[in-house]
Specification:
single chain, 154 residues, mainly alpha, Rna Polymerase Sigma Factor, Chain: A, Arc Repressor Mutant, subunit A, 2 domains, 8 helices
Amino acid sequence: MRQAFQLAYRVVGHREDAEDLVQEAFLAAYQYLDSFDASRPFGPWLMRIVLNRGANLRRARSRRETEPETDAVSPLPSALEDSERAEARVQLASAMATLSERQRVIVTLFDVDGLTSTEIGEMLDLSAGTVRWHLHEARRTLRGLLSRFFKGDV
């Protein structure tokens, strides 16, 4: 349940939406339990349902929005370090938003959740090699977009 919520939150970005998404995913899993292949692990199958439902929710939400969420300005922190961290978070979110949905999910599952390329491949119905290629391409893109944070000239 916790893993499903964490994934849902990363996909939709809002706690309430993530809670609804997890509940909907569990209901869908129950409804389609007869189509589940018992010879395979249950976790990746459930996470795939969460990902699919979350992607549908994001698409529906993006059609209704008139301005991107990344334009929101947070209050200025008092310390320079806090300000730099806040800027880095905004830049990271902006850079992640440039990735394809698949690459964004793969980076999150691999680098944040610690899943292996094989586990991610099972969730996304991709080979482990394809997952690693998408991860490589996504990291290359992120490195280019965030290079100023790695050079120290913030």
